[in-house]
Input
Amino acid sequence: MPTKFYHPRYWLVWIGLGLLWLITRLPWLYQMRIGAVIGNLLYHAIPSRRKVSCINLKIAFPELSNQALNKLNKKHFISMAQGLLDAAQSWWGSTKRLEKLTHIEGIEHIKTAQDAGENILLVGAHFTSLEVGGRIIAAHTPVDAVYRPHHNDLLEYLVAKERNKHFRKTISKRNIRQMIKGLKDGHVSWYATDQNYRLKGSILIPFFGVEAPTNPSTARIAKMTKATVIPIFTYRLLGSHSDQRQGYLLRILPPVEHFPSGDDYHDVSHLNHIIEEQIKEFPEQYLWSHERYKHYQKENKDFYKNYLRKNPEVNCQ
Output
């Protein structure tokens, strides 16, 4: 380990990671209860993110009353905190415990594509259990995982070390060429591209009816590599939905048909629709605190600053 990580400026990170490691030693339901406490604290401690997620939720579910909206927003913050513990579970949790918590739907879609000799691109979305979903799928097939590097050097070093134990290869999102090469070589790749994308080549695609800058790379990569695109999502089951199971549900959908079609707008809109349908089933577990609509139009760059002014009937507490 680089000696710089023993510097006092990293001590708080060490303490935080140490606490997370200790929590992963507890029974899973205890971990989720701790996550609920942390989430309630975060809901009150980060008003700027609370407003962003409230606005996003209102866009997605315009029929909600202010009371229902803020209740769902609080559940989202609880889910975010539990997602942090899910991530810790993926880094340091035992394989035996994780297997007992895992429920998988649709693994046959990957097996069928592999048996047919197809290149496979697994496309996910930023639900709060995304990280642990990667470890679950990696236990069933070798996977190249595309990830976003952390800004903190120590966190990036330690998390990369743990990820590399489970994935065939980890690839920075800044190195998509490596991902493309892996796909052409027959490796299964897994990534998510549903966050705000303002770089060159982005296109405006409706997400819950409002245009958002979107990355069209999934369609382009699939075309370049002749890959079969298979949607994959991970949800946390606490026995509170119609599904009374507890643990993690890894849902693998059938391959996207006629993809790519040659029309980026149509293809990405189709993927957004698939993601929207999954969000509706587990609405609190999507990452609403992300500024999905920021800079959605050149003439209205600060979408979140202006939204509540234009919609005074929305009360984000």
